[in-house]
Write a structure and sequence with these properties.
single chain; 494 residues; alpha+beta; five-stranded antiparallel sheet; 10 helices; 30 strands; 19% helix
Length: 494
């Protein structure tokens, strides 16, 4: 007897490249077990729908392989795969009633009428649409049409149900109701669900595992709890829920420095004196009201006495590193208050609390060691590029020639390949793209407490990382200026 494969679906090193040379998927690997509810989550254009369409067979991967039950189906047409897809636009037939929409696939298979009737009724019952058999689909609400689309997919008894943002057209309350129904339907059917969405709450609510994607790559795979509580990089931390993200230094195991202070944490294995990013969720920062004169006179790590903390039973007892600030805004969100607190040295924190702290209130803050999440920095202080010294005393890199200080290229010959370093802080962005040596677009924005960390994608497709205090919006066109004194040249090391 043949051994059953461990995974129902295997996506192995799949890439999808389009005619313009851009990658929708770039070396993606994913394994899905039978009966799992897996959600592919990410922003628009991240590749999640392309991945789903490759699994369904509507698109063919440029490289890599896709296995279903251990068999290579990379180039197998959709109708020969044991999968069904529910689309964002339900693609129902307006000239057919509900029964005939659901029965359409069974009729194509030429199943006998009695079997079709039984299967359609069972599918409609599972989708909570019993009694609607004779209704025209264009008389149904959006939620009802969604249920018909699901019934049409499950009536064929697929081993895998693929759902491409099926709830995006529904209003908020109906979307929440349908999330519950989908979860229950998955439990009833026991088949594998692969679900695509850009809605973080939806992904965390529905899934056994979440696959977070960005720019054609998988950034993290894990349970909803792991994704939220243990993000592996700043993109995941920023994209999933709200986060305070700060630059820090891992001093040693279980000890990290940020805000100019040392904090206990529980993370290990990062090394000593290593730059890291620190993630703190807004609900994990404890607030208490302090006297204004205390904030002004006493800002050290042990500034707040135990007596100050004991005033509020909800504030943890113990020796914690504390810091202080002033509430800038307070908004009631229904379940909690959301506040922005500014520290004297210019750091801004987003904090969620069940208690109201009015603007202008001086507050103390602390966070427990287990609520400080440490992630590796994806980028450090510098942009690194391979460049070339030109005959006219400049350096060419990222498809442009740049002025440099003469002493920077002393000892280098024209035509010599070099490594170029450009600090994040030294890149100037201009409002008008024609004012820059290069032009590009703001591609990603990450707020780091007291500055913004931007990814700028040039028109030639290069990424530059910029630290700035200026406020930009995603998609803004910018001119890129790098002062000559900020361009650092090193020998190119193989």
């Amino acid at each position: 007897m043949a051994k059953q494969p461990e995974y129902l679906i295997e996506v192995n090193h799949v890439s999808k490249r389009f005619e313009d040379g851009k990658y929708a998927l770039n070396d993606v690997s994913l394994q899905v077990k039978k009966g799992e509810f897996v959600t592919i989550l990410g922003p628009s254009g991240c590749g999640k729908t392309t991945l789903l369409r490759c699994i369904a067979g509507f698109q063919v991967a440029s490289s890599g392989e896709i296995l279903l039950k251990g068999e290579d189906v990379t180039k197998t047409p959709p109708y020969k795969r044991p999968v069904n897809t529910v689309f964002q636009k339900y693609a129902l037939f307006p000239h057919l009633n509900v029964f005939n929409n659901v029965a359409f696939g069974l009729k194509l298979k030429k199943e006998d009428p009695e079997t079709i009737k039984k299967k359609v009724r069972r599918a409609l019952k599972m989708a909570n649409m019993t009694g609607y058999e004779e209704r025209k689909v264009d008389t149904l609400s959006g939620g009802q049409q969604q249920r018909v689309a699901i019934a049409r997919a499950i009536v064929n008894e697929p081993e895998v149900l693929l759902l491409d943002e099926p709830l995006s057209a529904l209003d908020l309350k109906m979307r929440h109701d349908m999330q519950i129904e989908l979860k229950e339907l998955h439990e009833k059917l026991g088949i594998t669900f692969i679900y695509v969405t850009h809605d973080q709450e939806e992904a965390l609510t529905l899934s056994d595992r979440v696959v977070v994607m960005n720019e054609g790559k998988i950034k993290q795979i894990g349970t909803p709890t792991d994704i939220y509580n243990e993000p592996q990089n700043c993109f995941v931390a920023d994209f999933i829920g709200e986060s305070n993200i700060l630059s820090g230094t891992m001093i040693r195991d279980r000890k990290v420095q940020f805000l100019g202070r040392e904090f206990d944490c529980i993370d290990e294995g990062f090394g000593e004196d290593v730059p890291v990013d620190v993630v703190i969720r807004p609900e994990d920062i404890y607030l208490w009201k302090v006297q204004s004169d205390k904030v002004q006179s006493d800002k050290g790590p042990d500034a707040a006495s135990q007596a100050d903390l004991d005033e509020e039973d909800r504030v943890p007892k113990g020796k914690f590193t504390k810091w202080y600030g002033t509430v800038e805004s307070c908004i009631f969100k229904g379940v909690h208050y959301e506040m922005r607190v500014l520290t004297p040295d210019g750091y801004e924190f987003l904090i969620q609390d069940y208690h109201e702290f009015l603007p202008g209130t001086e507050v103390g803050m602390l966070v427990k060691p287990e609520d400080i999440q440490i992630v590796k920095k994806e980028h450090y202080i510098y942009n690194y590029f391979e460049g070339e010294v030109t005959k006219n005393g400049k350096v060419r890199f990222i498809d442009a020639e740049w002025d440099v200080l003469p002493q920077q290229i002393e000892g280098f010959e024209p035509g010599e390949k070099v490594q170029v370093r450009v600090p994040f802080r030294s890149i100037d962005l201009q409002d008008y793209e024609e004012e820059g040596t290069l032009s590009g677009e703001v591609h990603f924005i990450l707020y780091k407490g007291n500055h913004y960390h931007l990814t700028i994608r040039t028109d030639e497709g290069h990424d530059l990382y910029v630290n700035t205090n200026d406020v930009w919006d995603d998609g803004d066109r910018v001119g890129i200026v790098i002062p000559a004194k900020e361009i650092l040249i090193d020998k190119l090391v193989d």
